[in-house]
Amino acid sequence: MELNNNICYSPEVAEAIKNDRPVIALESTIISHGMPYPRNVETAKLCEAAARELGVVPATCAILGGRLCAGLTPEQLEYLGRAGAAVTKASRRDIAVISASRGDGALTVAGTMILASMAGIRVFATGGIGGVHRGAQETMDISADLDELGRTSVAVVCAGAKSILDIGLTLEYLETKGVPVIGYKTSEMPAFYTRSSGFGVDYRMDDPEAIAAAFSEKLRLGIAGGMLVVNPVPEEYSMDKEKIDAVIEAAVEKAKTLGIKGKNITPFLLAEIKDVTGGESLETNIALVLNNVRLASRIAKAMR
Ligand code: PSU
Ligand code: MN
User: How high is the pLDDT of residue 304?
Assistant: First the structure.
């Protein structure tokens, strides 16, 4: 595939794109806003290593000094991890503004999908996506990730949606936007920390080749938009449902009391959950992201 002049590729990613070798995108909000330092940087590096181990080139995406980067150096990962929430969380609306002002931005799922698509990358691994927030009937808080999935042709591998969100409404919204939700070895939508949510997925597929074939066909037919692949957290890392639900419930209430809104609410809830569970949730988070990187790598290798 040809390189895009608007993208600043790392040498390794440029080489892979030019020669049609498998590449996966990785996001950077998960580094800056999703996990504490230094585990965030360690995890980012472990994710890259996990992809490479399977013969896939990782392209962590971020905006640095106004440049849209696909593939970061270890120093750049360190910078994003150390800076944390001081880096702007960047979604679709933010990209051009940050780029024009030569600023830095950590990209969300929506932002990473845009860069990946521009860069020629079709598969992307993350932890959890944004979705329809609880109480969205009043607040209209629906993540830009969902609209991006409806319009940008990148397959996103995640561990489902956290119950900080309304999982049922998130699935309804994805249906409206025409986004197929594929359960990997499951018929149920996973809930990030736990393997089940009680909600069904659209299709169950048991091998990465079948997922790659379906997404390749979507691209071939020119049906715009992404695909959501949901991969349950490995059994040994899944958390106790009652316990995590109670923590989430309390965090959602606290956010409401403090009047936290807009782009701040998801990072606030993630930090609360991590603090209250004393790090158990962080271990689960890291394990499931790595699990998603491995599945995304297998899908990327099977893409035609
Ligand atoms: N959910 C997680 N971890 C994360 C995020 C969500 O479990 O790190 C981040 C992702 O970058 C996602 C973003 O794209 O939060 C969604 O933010 P919002 O809800 O403001 O759209
Ligand atoms: Mn929101």
Answer: 86
Output the pTM of the full model: 0.98
Provide the CATH number for the domain around residue 123.
3.40.1790.10
* Domain assignment of residue 115, yes or no: yes
Looking at the CA of residue 106, tell me the nearest atom of ligand 1: 11
CA of 131 from ligand 2 middle (Å) equals: 8
Nearest ligand 1 atom to the CA of 30 is 8
pLDDT tier, 299 (very low <50, low <70, confident <90, very high otherwise)? very high
Task: Evaluate: CB of 270 within 6 angstroms of ligand 1.
Answer: yes
Domain extent at residue 134: 7-302
For the stretch 149-158, pLDDT in tens is 999 999 999 9
240 within a domain of the structure (yes/no): yes
pLDDT of 97 higher than 90: yes
Query: Do the beta carbons of residue 226 and residue 149 sit within 8 Å?
Result: yes
22: Cβ below 6 Å to ligand 1? no
- Cα–Cα distance, 183 to 201 (Å, whole number): 6
Query: Is 261 assigned a catalytic role?
Result: no
Catalytic, 188? Answer no
The arithmetic mean of pLDDT across residues 294-300, rounded, is 99
Is 209 domain-assigned? Answer: yes
Q: Is 268 within the bounds of a domain?
A: yes
Q: How far is the CA of 125 from the centre of ligand 1 (A)?
A: 13
Ramachandran region, residue 192 (left: φ > 0; alpha: ψ -120 to 50; beta: rest): left
The predicted structure's pLDDT at residue 244: 95
Spatial CB neighbours of 25, under 8 Å, sequence gap ≥ 6: 59, 60, 61, 70, 112, 113, 115, 116, 119, 121, 123, 124, 125, 154
Ligand 2 centroid, distance to 10 Cα (angstroms): 31
- Per annotation, catalytic residue among 48, 78, 148, 162: 162
Per-residue model confidence as pLDDT tens digits over 116-157? 999 999 999 999 999 999 999 999 999 999 999 999 999 999
Instruction: Take atom 7 of ligand 1 and give the residue whose Cα is closest.
Output: 128
Per-residue pLDDT, 278: 82
